Amino acid sequence: MTSTPASAPPPAASPSGHPGASAASAQASHARMTASAARQQQRGRPSQGRPEDLATVLVAGPRPPRPSALSVCLTFGWRAMLKIKHVPEQLFDVTAFPIMMTLMFTYLFGGALAGSTTEYLQYLLPGIMVMSVVMTTMYTGVSVNTDIEKGVFDRFRTLPIWRPAPMVGYLLGDAFRYTMASVVILTVGLVLGFRPGGGFMGVVAGIALLVAFSFAFSWLWTMFGLLLRTEKSVMGVSMMVLFPLTFLSNILVEPRTMPGWLQAFVDVNPVTHLVAAVRGLMDGHWPGGEISWTLIASGVLIAVFGTLTMRLYNRK
Known about the structure:
The chain is mainly alpha-helical. Helix content is 74%, strand content 0%. The model is unreliable at 1-21 (pLDDT under 50).
């Protein structure tokens, strides 16, 4: 017995009564869904004609040029100055401290050592300027150590920049602080009666030489900032180095009044040559030998401690 094939069920009637309308509606809905899925899939693919796509920008777009070493150093220097803006208490060591040192040494020792505070101020002020600025350099190492503890230097290492730029930026920002301290001391001295024989150019040359030496000397503290664990340790070591260098010099008195064994140390002290150079420039004569010794010492400090600092920075 031959069985006849079952016939397909008739199409369902639409609400309007036409049996093929429902099937056509289903096919149209399926086509719309297929087109929508295709569009969504197309959105997920990078398109050659749409540069706004992230993949196109990152892969096909031109790589931005690497910043120069100078621009990066200036950027980090500006960062150091912005830290002063947001934490103005950092200016205490370059404002209140120099004023206190100038007044204290002028009126405590002026009458006893020179017989007159005005005469002693002519001798003392360049030395006090050097003392205040050189002692301020230790805060460079403290700032470096603080940023290391906060993990900031880990971010710096991931940037495509010149490696020494963060360190140089610190020193450039601190150079502004050294200049400010020098101007504060000079202003106080002028009010008290200090009159530089070298005039404006002599004062500018003396401050420039002092800032240059302080920039070089700060590399010593950046090394200690990387080497020591805490900022208190950096400050402790800094004081142990700074106090002999500043007080065992010609800042307060002439070396010829000292014992022979002490005078031998004072004569080779780089701070002594710096004070003599700054004092001579502000007084109106240019001591070529002292200026040369100061510049040579600055170059040696950068060559030695700058190299050690960068080796520690790369290994930190």
